[in-house]
Amino acid sequence: MKKISHTLPTILGILGLLTLCACGQSSAPMADKMPKEAVAKIDYKPYPFHTSVVSDTKLDAQAVVFVQDGYEVKVSNQDEAKTYKKAPAQFLAKIRQAYADAKPYPLSKCVVCDMKLEDDALFFVYEGRQFKVCSDEDCYQVFQKDPAKYVKLWDVAAKSAATVTARYPFTGRVVAVVPERHALLIANEAVAGLMGAMTMEFTVDDPALKAAAKDANLTAELVREGDSLQLKNIKFSPPPSL
């Protein structure tokens, strides 16, 4: 009996230690299973000016911001917001035109972080220039804090790219219309002296985006400026009837 009474506390102590260890181990995997915060996405076309669309006055912290028909709109104050509401089509047309007339993006990487751009890169226009940044909201927010800095980077890149310009005849077929990126996914025939047949996405202007249809054939002029490729003088023909 002495043996048993002497051994029992020891056994209980060991069991207690094992229980503590098991509890400590079970908490670690819980941290790994915690859900990650969703990455914010921008599902509208950001505002293209640093001034109010109504009065052309410089925007400040009092600006009124809202989204209409997929475009972000900014005005200086509530009075201008009321003016906007009286003729929204007139002011929205100005924003749309800014997107149509913007100069093409001269880089192949994000202007903010210099990382390679993915297919879902955020496309927007600012002060007459096309910009592309990483798809999550972080790079766009960094851009917003100092847009003048990135406009200067754009200008330097555009000046460098402008020294190398080439034009090629281009034919292809529309695989998909991608309005959220202002682009067409095109299966093109081989472009002599530049690239083989492939399927790739091209940013296009508003008239081309509206005229495009899935499976429509097209001809255009492919303009290469540095690393940038852009389609000009796009002409569509209906898809062949089945």
Order of helices and strands: HEEHHEEHHEEEHEE
Q: State the end-to-end CA separation.
A: 96 Å
Largest sheet: 5 strands, antiparallel
Number of strands: 9
- Cross-sheet strand order for the largest sheet: 7-6-5-8-9
Question: Over all CA atoms, what is the radius of gyration?
Answer: 28 Å
Structural class: alpha+beta
Shape: globular
The domain tally reads 2
Can you count the helices?
6
Describe how the helices and strands are arranged:
Layout: H1 2-32, E1 64-68, E2 71-75, H2 78-86, H3 88-101, E3 122-126, E4 129-133, H4 137-145, H5 147-161, E5 165-178, E6 183-188, E7 198-203, H6 206-211, E8 217-225, E9 228-237
Describe the 3D structure.
By secondary structure, this protein is an alpha+beta fold. The chain folds into 2 domains: 64-161, no CATH class; 165-237, Copper binding periplasmic protein CusF (OB fold (Dihydrolipoamide Acetyltransferase, E2P), Beta Barrel), CATH 2.40.50.320. Helices cover 35% and strands 27% of the residues. The protein contains 6 helices and 9 strands. The strands form 3 sheets. A 5-stranded antiparallel β-sheet has the order 7-6-5-8-9. A two-stranded antiparallel sheet has the order 1-2. A hairpin with a 4-residue loop joins strand 5 and strand 6 (183-188). The longest helix is centred in the N-terminal third of the chain and has 31 residues, at 2-32. It is globular and about 55 Å long.
Quick summary of this structure?
It is built from six helices and nine strands, in the order H-E-E-H-H-E-E-H-H-E-E-E-H-E-E.
